[in-house]
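Deliverable D2.4 — example input (structure tokens):
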């Protein structure tokens, strides 16, 4: 709790050139997801607010076809920036968590986490077992996400070793905080819809809608980049086909990509606008990611 109060007092932005979008202080953004997620878009949250509030009317539906931790869609739902949100995720492990969070089993999951006695032995036993239900699989996924280095669920990821303050495996295991987030998500579940499936198909199905907006954050594998492959079990996306689908969307959209030559070329081929955004990654290193859209005037800080 003390930590949360402290976080709320931090300034939202770190200062930089006044004409540029400021660098977001991620510690100031309310953390609503149960995941610590590689490639998570917490840094985007202040821009999400600015973008959606710039629209003439609040969207009926906010669709996030590559959901991962869902921090962006969850924020839209909590802050009523859209009437409802839809998250899509293809990875069955992550999907098990979303199915459970949005069902009656959310309470079971919160209790399971709070009652779990964490030792090196209990962690390995829980992770080695074959889950017999969706909710058990959800618990196993959250545990794995918390004890694996960088929150990585893909094969080959190692465990956290010394962790925060030398606390080892338990250094990212905050049972009470996780339970609170789970119960908070349960209070807005009427406005949150989850689909286990292919995000590109969902984009195609919704392409004629003018009342929906889309936040599209695929694994960064354009041009054969390897980073996304190490981070996600499902990393293969046909980026050219994705851009063609996005070009047919009637509703407003935003894509995020790594600041790579390939992503730039794809954006330019469709006459989309792009803006490199300075951000700090989890290691506090400054880097840039691209925002891509048809309209970025709401980003003007000049
Ligand atoms: C960059 S991450 C999204 C991170 C998310 N924006 C966040 O803030 O946590 C990309 C996600 O897309 C998922 N994914 C990969 N291919 C997909 C597909 N065809 N349909 C839906 N999800 C997919 C991956 O499993 C991964 O969770």
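Example output (designed residues):
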């Amino acid at each position: 709790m003390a930590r949360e109060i402290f976080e709320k007092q931090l300034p939202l932005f770190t200062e930089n050139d006044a004409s540029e979008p400021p660098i977001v202080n991620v510690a100031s953004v309310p953390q609503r997801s149960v995941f610590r997620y590689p490639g998570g878009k917490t840094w985007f949250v202040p821009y999400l607010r600015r973008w959606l509030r710039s629209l003439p009317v609040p969207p009926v539906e906010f669709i996030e076809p590559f959901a991962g931790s869902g921090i962006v869609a969850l924020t839209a739902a909590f802050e009523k920036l859209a009437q409802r949100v839809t998250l899509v995720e293809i990875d069955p492990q992550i999907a098990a968590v979303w199915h459970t969070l949005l069902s009656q089993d959310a309470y079971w999951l919160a209790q399971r986490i709070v009652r779990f006695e964490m030792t090196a032995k209990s962690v390995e036993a829980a992770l080695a077992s074959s889950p017999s239900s969706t909710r058990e699989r959800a618990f196993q996924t959250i545990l794995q996400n918390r004890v694996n280095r960088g929150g990585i669920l893909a094969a080959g990821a190692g465990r956290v070793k010394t962790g925060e303050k030398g606390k080892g495996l338990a250094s990212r295991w905050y049972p009470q905080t996780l339970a609170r987030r789970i119960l908070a998500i349960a209070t807005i579940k009427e406005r949150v819809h989850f689909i286990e499936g292919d995000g590109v198909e969902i984009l195609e199905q919704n392409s004629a809608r003018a009342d929906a907006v889309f936040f599209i954050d695929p694994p960064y594998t354009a041009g054969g980049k390897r980073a996304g492959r190490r981070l996600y079990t499902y990393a293969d996306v046909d980026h050219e086909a994705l851009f063609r689908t996005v070009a047919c969307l009637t509703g407003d959209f935003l894509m995020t990509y790594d600041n790579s030559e390939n992503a730039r070329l794809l954006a330019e081929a469709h006459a989309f606008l792009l803006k490199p955004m300075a951000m700090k990654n989890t290691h506090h290193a400054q880097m840039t990611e691209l925002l891509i859209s048809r309209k970025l005037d709401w980003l003007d800080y000049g």
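Residues 37, 39-41, 65-66, 68-69, 71-72, 88-91, 94, 198-200, 217-219, 232, 234, 237 surround S-adenosylmethionine (CB under 6 Å).
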